Amino acid sequence: KRQLGMVFQNFALFPHMTVYENVEFPLMIRNLPKEKRREMVMEALQLIRMEGYEKHYPRQLSGGQQQRVGLARALVYRPKVLLLDEPLSNLDAKLREEMRFEIKDLQTRLDITAIYVTHDQEEALALSDRVAIMNEGRIEQVGTPEEIYEKPQSKFVADFIGLSNFIEGVVAGFDDLGRAVIAREGGQLLIPASEDLVRGQRILVFVRPNEIQLLSQNQGGGENTFDGVVEKMTYLGDKMDYRVRLSEALELRVQTDGTLRFERGERVRVHLPIERCRAI
To answer: Where are the domains of the chain?
Structure first.
């Protein structure tokens, strides 16, 4: 009656029914003619590239194939809205990425409104036209993926979407270039000025780990460059992850492409590009 399609986290296929029967089920309870049901089922299976699997049972399918069947069952009667409840959480990382693109492609081709619930921030950014970030049942922020990532309106959103460093400070004033001067423990920090910032205001400055530049001790760096010591380093394949101690109260997480390596205990310089430092 509500014309809603639903894809569940655990696939929820009927184990005693074949692929064909699972996909056909929503049409049967709507009392559609048999020939019409067959036409719509085959069209749905073709849509998810599962032709030839009509007589298979769920136990004979891989996780990715079962999820495709779940999608076909939800889409077969062309609902007005498709609801997806963490549909990829039971799949391995590589298959999850493949299915992510398939779902986005299906949603675009069918031009259907989809509401996708997930705790995976990459899924949220990759699949959505608009993202709603929820915290304890309340919406913290709604926006495009770019707005959510680049301009979070609260610490919760900045911390939930992507990795973030937070630096506490007070707006000390504004320089001749229109930048805000933030007084923090151990020095000053420059950030872009905005109408929301006033002298004496306590703020949080956030910057992403991959936006920070890590330099050797003999390199310059210019404004917003500070001395630090590498406390931890982790090799992540395509990048290096560092924890750099700037003071007793401030440790920054920095991610680099790995072309320049630093060792634990090594003294380094940390450059925070002014345009990438945002106030919350």
So the answer is: 4-129, 165-204, 207-279
Condensed to tens digits (0 to 9), the pLDDT of residues 173-228 reads 999 888 999 999 878 999 999 888 999 999 999 999 999 999 998 887 789 999 99
**4-129, what's its fold?**
Rossmann fold (3.40.50)
CB 86 within 8 A of CB 10: no
For strands 81-85 and 113-117, give the pairing. parallel
| Residue 146: CB atoms within 10 Å | 10
Q: Which residues pair with 235 in a beta bridge?
A: 240
Q: How many CB atoms lie within 10 A of CB 59?
A: 8
CATH top class, domain 207-279: mainly beta
Over 90: is that where the pLDDT of 102 sits?
Answer: no
- What torsion, rounded to 10 degrees, do the Cα atoms 74, 75, 79, 83 define? 50
Average pLDDT, the chain: 92
- Residue 84 Cα to chain centre, angstroms: 16
**What is the pTM assigned to this prediction?**
0.81
| Burial (CB count within 10 angstroms: exposed 0-12, middle 13-18, buried 19+), residue 214 | buried
